[in-house]
Amino acid sequence: MAIFKDLLVVVDDSAACAGRLDLAVRLAVRFGAHVIGLYVYETPVIAGYARTDVPAGLRVGNSIVPSYLVSRAEALEALRQAQHEMAGRARELFRKQAEVAGITTEWRAREGDVGRIAMLHARYADLVIVGQADPDAAGSESLREIPQQLLLGVGRPILAVPYTGTFRTIGERVLVAWNASREATRAVNDALPLLQTATQVTVLAINPRDGVSGEGEVPGADLALHLSRHGVKAEASWLHADDVTVAALLLSRLADLQADLLVMGGYGHSRMREIVLGGVTREILQAMTVPTLLSH
């Protein structure tokens, strides 16, 4: 049986990070997994060396650089110090949560581009846990694309955790978004450790296709049968609607089922070095209400 043994959780300074760490720790306890906490801070950059290059009250995350610093060298040093302090606070939060659970952990703090560094470390993990960016939080712009970068660039399942909400359970009631694609097939296979321990799994096909490239006579039934051979209690269902988006239907069904996990394929391709995701994937990443496991 496939199982998660190495979990990588991307740690940041957001208020939602504590909940993300709690979720990672609970998964580690369930599967007897090792948890790696990865904190990445960007290389500070201040142009020039004049007084005007150092704005008064320069903010780095939740820290403010004193306005009396006027030289570029002093400002850079203050920025680095603030970053190290934030990393220290994040590490202490990580340590406390893991210590209570009694799991094995590893802390990694790196400087550079968050997406690139996270992709490198994610290649040696079974599951990557990352937060949804809060659009109203300071500094979220640089974090917004990390789930997409990891999804399309790593080849590992990504568990994206909403920035708002409390998730007391995960993987007890699971909704699988099924369209018989390669990406959806990959996501279901990657999610097997969670599906096998779930009490309820619903395979949902939305606006299923017809013909030899479709989902079968009863959409989702073939997948439910396949999952049953892996000890998964799954039932198939389908919905058809032309006037509602697929993402909106998924979110509505999640609420109806009181599901605590969505499993779906992540769609997209690279064009002129710019990540372009499919509409459903992007909408879910922007409006998710429960943790979502995605594979590409």
Q: Which CATH-level-2 architecture of the largest domain?
A: 3-Layer(aba) Sandwich
Q: Segments where pLDDT lies below 50 for 5+ residues?
A: 49-53, 270-277
Whole-number mean pLDDT: 85
CATH homologous superfamily descriptor of the largest domain: HUPs
Number of helices: 9
How many domains make up the coordinates? 2
Helix content: 25-40%
Number of β-strand runs: 14
Strand content range:
15-25%
Question: Terminal Cα separation, in Å?
Answer: 21 Å
User: Which CATH class of the largest domain applies here?
Assistant: Alpha Beta
Secondary-structure content class: alpha/beta
Strand order of the largest sheet: 5-2-1-6-7-14-11-8-9-10
Order of helices and strands: EHEEEHEHEHEEHHEHEHEEEHE
* 3D shape: globular
Would you summarize the structure shown here?
This protein has 296 residues and is of the alpha/beta class. The chain has helices at 17-31, 72-101, 114-122, 146-153, 182-190, 192-195, 221-228, 246-257, 279-287; strands spanning 6-11, 34-41, 58-60, 63-65, 105-111, 127-131, 158-161, 173-177, 200-206, 234-239, 261-265, 268-271, 274-277, 292-295. It folds into two domains: 6-43 and 82-161, HUPs (Rossmann fold, 3-Layer(aba) Sandwich); 173-295, Rossmann fold (3-Layer(aba) Sandwich).
Q: Could you outline the blueprint of secondary structure elements for this entry?
A:
Blueprint (H helix, E strand, L loop, with lengths): L5 E6 L5 H15 L2 E8 L16 E3 L2 E3 L6 H30 L3 E7 L2 H9 L4 E5 L14 H8 L4 E4 L11 E5 L4 H9 L1 H4 L4 E7 L14 H8 L5 E6 L6 H12 L3 E5 L2 E4 L2 E4 L1 H9 L4 E4 L1
Parallel strand pairs: 1-2, 1-6, 2-5, 6-7, 8-9, 8-11, 9-10, 11-14
Antiparallel strand pairs: 3-4, 7-14, 12-13
